[in-house]
Amino acid sequence: MFKLCPCGSLKEFSVCCHSLISGQTIATTALELMKSRYCAYVSHDVEYLVATWHPDVRSPDLAESIAEIEHDN
Question: What is this structure's pTM?
Answer without folding.
Answer: 0.78
